[in-house]
Design a protein that fits this description.
Helix content is 58%, strand content 13%. By secondary structure, the chain is an alpha+beta fold. It folds into two domains: 4-182, no CATH class; 264-386, Histidine kinase-like ATPase, C-terminal domain (Heat Shock Protein 90). Strands 3-4-5-7-6 form a five-stranded mixed β-sheet, with helices on one face. The longest helix is centred in the middle third of the chain and has 75 residues, at 145-219. The chain is rod-shaped, with a radius of gyration of 40 Å.
Amino acid sequence: MPRLRDLPLWLVLCVPVVFAPVNPYDWRPQSGNLLVVSVAAGCLVLAGAVAVARAWPLAALVVVLLLGPWASSEALATVQLWPMNHSAKIGPLNGFTPAVVTLSFLAGMRMERARPAVWLYGVVVVVGGACAAVSTLGPAPSLEPNVWVSGLSGVLICSLLPWTAGRSVRHRRQGRLRERLMVEEQARLRERARIAQDVHDSLGHELALIALRAGAMEMAADLPVRHREAAAGLREAAGDATERLRRVIGMLRAQDEPATLLPHARAGGIADLVARARASGMTVTLEGDGAGGDPLGAAYRVVQEGLTNAAKHAPGAPVVVTLSRREGRMTVTVRNDAGPGAEAPRPGTGLVGLSERVRLAGGTFAARVEDGMFEISAGIPDEAPA
């Protein structure tokens, strides 16, 4: 018996088998107990085909092809095909026709490889075509013409066409699945890039401040030598940790994947960020007020990256942070002494990610060395573009 979830399908397919009218070409006896037995046997065979249709769709296809469609008194059309001497029925209709159409369609959808079914249909067409020609072309055909012609046309119309439709549905489903998996993979890559950028922005900044504070302790003349040595070790460890963090972020970030805009600015905003940098020993001047806040968090990241770069590449140099707002747009500038012989900044992970963050906020970003000063500037609108 079919599995329970396939039971409704089996019951539906059995209805035409049971109630199909008896005709001279039918496989069933005309009446009596043999008719009941033959119908019951047909339903049992159909039950087996439905039961194996999920695990072995090709086997179910073979079973329904053996059951029908073959010759019957009903057909889609009756035509005279030259050079045949007799009329032939095209696409016979009998009690098994719905089962043939349905299970052929399901086989097309469920078969992983199409080649076995193609070979099966090829054999049926070649053998059936040869038999149809031999049995119908002569003046005294050896078999009733409808046996081969209608059977062959029934296979093509009632089985091959539904199987082809099933393959088409399977291909479309696979295409949608591949597209969905691709979208999910891209989402995972974007999330990795976002995590990497956020780690760089937050943890990298904190490590730079630790190194700066340790450097200040190392240079303090009033500390014992052992404390200055410990501070030197702490500064070196913070520098090593920063370098390892950079390498890990390089592996975590997918190439050519932009960082998404997901601000995680501290509640105190830019003023708190500057105050914490000053507490670490940096000389930072904050100009302007930037009234209106930083709803997108991009301005906070610009200042954070500027202070991190200054602490890392120009320790001890004064830093000027300028904020201004005009016509719904905030301009942020971070400047510090670049030192003698400074070159144009190379696009590292921090600057690249920062540039992308500002771009996603609908703003503009620039990093340059001018008149011996390293400058990071960004223009950020109050609202991101739709």
